[in-house]
Design brief:
The chain folds into three domains: about 240 residues, M75 peptidase, HXXE motif (A middle domain of Talin 1); about 150 residues, Orthogonal Bundle (Cytochrome Bc1 Complex, Chain D, domain 2); about 160 residues, Cytochrome c-like domain (Cytochrome Bc1 Complex, Chain D, domain 2, Orthogonal Bundle). The chain is about 45% helix and about 0% strand. The chain contains 23 helices and four strands. Strand 1 and strand 2 form a beta hairpin. Helix 3 crosses helix 7, helix 7 packs antiparallel against helix 8 and helix 20 crosses helix 23. The termini are far apart.
Length: about 625
């Protein structure tokens, strides 16, 4: 009887709570996913309709049918990209460039395919119906294969919310920048279609939302109204769209998720994804998790390891001749570059092959060095250690030197407590890696403005960012907010580009630089003509401090760099540049616009990590006279 009374009391409490909050239970999640599959079939049908127009070579109906296809595609994009990310990038909507087939031992070049290729073909002055037919047939085949995968997926509420937030990042960095629409420039209508899809997904949660959460729907509707108004404008205000809609939505959906009782990623895995789900703002300092890039689990981090790595970074003990440290080429006062066209070798007799890139935010990449030869930071350190033109030493010699120091032994003991005092290749490279990770920051004036930490920004900086995202087409390679080539929203792939970089700064008599780049990086799987003269897209944060520019240091000023891009790179100058990824057409930037772009680039300067250096080096028996070099 007592058990019955208690149970009735609990039941009554539940009923009263329900009446008090007036909340209905969630509708079944599988209903949302069923509707997604229905929309997927609508996309398939739109694709069949488009293919019929292509087969009939009906140019009068082509654009109208294509835009119907795009609307159907963007309506499924949030969940399609979330659930089948690899297929999405490889077959549906990857960049319109040739790729290498993954996970095969030989070099197999895959021709570009998908919606972006069709978007370019659809606006050609002379329509190539044969090429369009091939693309649509490939896409039809991919949709059939992918549908089988999608039908086996179990959808959860967590997935739906994560997909919506990831889509906001994608809309900001790839959609509004025009990356997805290289031909038609239909990105505003695309964003409207995507927002309709987010509204449909979020409607699933409406019954459990508190009153102060439902403004999400008002904000999405207002966002779409603003996008419609922007369609007829010559210049899109990207800052307004980001500050007024994207960032507030990004924060609001996270806030609802964490307060809803629906599981979130930390509850299901202790392995963080590159995109930090708990950040409130796309320009937040913690927008990305560095662990997936560094391959170091966050639990392995410690201040002691960063301190040790910092000392090693400035210590010439790592070079055979004791005249170079990491800081010799990565000077903190120059945003961890050296200000030289190409760095001096350890013997001071020659120069190494390429310009020194910044280390600030360098961790946010999946491959390292200009030619992308190293998949990990610790392996990058190996290349410097063993290189005869750089440190020209081996770990056995470094370990022997460090073990002659009581101070270093104590530093290693404090940093690596599982095997106290152990000095080996792992502890050396791990400490250096953790120091480089610490050189990560998003605290420029522009970041603070985008986070609403400062109220105003220079009008030329404002205009410059809008040019960067729009007319300048800079953001289609330097993806915001990291402004490098690591592709949002998954941040699992870093891109390289073929620009037709010049050997000299003579624009009147241009000559191509002969560096083969990525195609000869030592990885035979990348030894392909599609990577000849291809180089990693570095971050442009702190770019005002890192002259000279390009992998060979050919340009001395940002004005020269903007002029090079404005012309259309090497191909735009009339040079033969196979597979150039930079459009050869002129951007048509005026002098004022070029200055405004530079004003924006200068506003990305962040000096938070540029001044702190060790005051002295640990004593090492036999090496007492070495000094901090940078």
């Amino acid at each position: 009887m007592r058990f019955i009374v208690i149970s009735l009391s609990i039941l009554l409490a539940i009923i009263l709570t329900g009446l008090a909050t007036n909340k209905k239970p969630l509708s079944p999640t599988n209903e949302v996913y069923k509707n997604f599959l229905i929309d997927y079939e609508k996309f398939e049908q739109s694709l069949f309709n488009f293919n019929e127009v292509v087969l009939s070579e009906n140019s009068a109906s082509l654009l109208k049918t294509y835009f119907s296809l795009r609307y159907a595609f963007k309506s499924i994009e949030p969940l399609l990209c979330y659930y089948v990310e690899n297929e999405y990038n490889l077959y549906f909507n990857g960049a319109p460039l040739p790729k290498l087939e993954p996970n095969v031992p030989e070099v197999v070049v895959l021709p570009p395919t998908g919606m972006q290729v069709i978007d370019e073909l659809i606006v050609q002055p002379k329509l190539n119906f044969e090429a369009l037919q091939k693309q649509t047939e490939n896409l039809i085949d991919s949709t059939k294969k992918t549908k089988k995968i999608l039908k086996g997926i179990s959808c959860t509420d967590r997935h739906l919310l994560e997909a919506c937030r990831a889509q906001l990042v994608r809309t900001f960095s790839l959609g509004l920048s025009g990356f997805d629409t290289p031909g038609t420039n239909n990105f505003l209508q695309d964003a409207i279609s995507v927002n309709h899809s987010i509204i449909k997904i979020m409607d699933h949660f409406k019954s459990i939302m508190h009153a102060n959460d439902t403004f999400i729907f008002d904000l999405l509707s207002e966002f779409n109204l603003t996008l419609k108004n922007e369609i007829n404008n010559d210049r899109v205000d990207y800052i307004e769209l980001t500050k007024k809609y994207i960032n507030p939505l990004y924060k609001a959906i996270k806030k609802f998720h964490l307060s809803s009782g629906i599981e979130h990623s930390k509850e299901v895995s202790d392995q963080p994804a590159p995109l930090n789900y708990y950040a409130d703002n796309i320009f937040a300092n913690d927008f990305l998790n560095h662990a997936p890039f560094s391959k170091i689990h966050s639990l392995d981090e410690s201040e002691a390891k960063v301190k040790l790595g910092k000392i090693l970074f400035f210590d010439p003990i790592l070079s055979i001749s004791l005249n170079q440290s990491c800081a010799s080429c990565h000077n903190p006062k120059l945003a961890f570059t050296d200000g030289k066209i190409k760095s001096i070798t350890t013997q001071n007799k020659n120069v190494i092959n390429r310009n020194t890139p910044t280390l600030i935010n360098s961790i946010y990449s999946t491959k390292f060095f200009y030619d992308m030869r190293s998949p990990n930071l610790d392996l990058q350190i190996d290349h410097v250690i063993y290189n005869k033109d750089e440190f020209n030493i081996d770990y056995a010699e470094i370990i022997k030197r460090l073990e002659n120091s009581k101070e270093y032994m104590q530093l290693f003991k404090k940093a690596y407590t599982k095997n106290p005092g152990t000095i080996n290749r792992y502890t050396i490279t791990n400490a250096l890696t953790q120091y480089v990770i610490s050189l990560s920051s998003f605290n420029s004036n522009f970041d603070k403005y985008m986070r609403n930490e400062v109220d105003t920004i220079n009008k030329n900086v404002y205009a410059g960012f809008n040019l960067f995202m729009g007319k300048g087409a800079c953001a289609t390679c330097h993806f915001a907010p990291v402004f490098n080539g690591t592709v949002p929203p998954a941040f699992k792939e870093s891109e390289s580009e073929i620009l037709g970089t010049l050997a000299t700064n003579d624009f009147d008599n241009p000559v191509l630089d002969n560096d083969p780049g990525r195609s000869k990086n030592g990885d035979l799987r990348q030894d392909s003509e599609i990577y000849f003269r291809s180089f990693k897209t570095p971050t442009i944060r702190n770019v005002a401090l890192t002259a000279p520019y390009m992998h060979n240091g050919v340009h001395n000023t940002l004005q020269e760099v903007i002029a090079f891009y404005n012309i259309g790179g090497g191909a735009g100058m009339g040079l033969k540049v196979p597979y150039q990824t930079l459009a050869p057409d002129s951007l048509g930037l005026t002098e004022l616009e070029s200055r405004q772009l530079i004003n924006f680039l200068e506003a990305l300067t962040d000096t938070i990590n540029l001044t702190s250096i060790p005051k002295k080096l640990p004593k090492i028996l036999g090496y007492e006279n070495r000094i901090i070099t940078y």
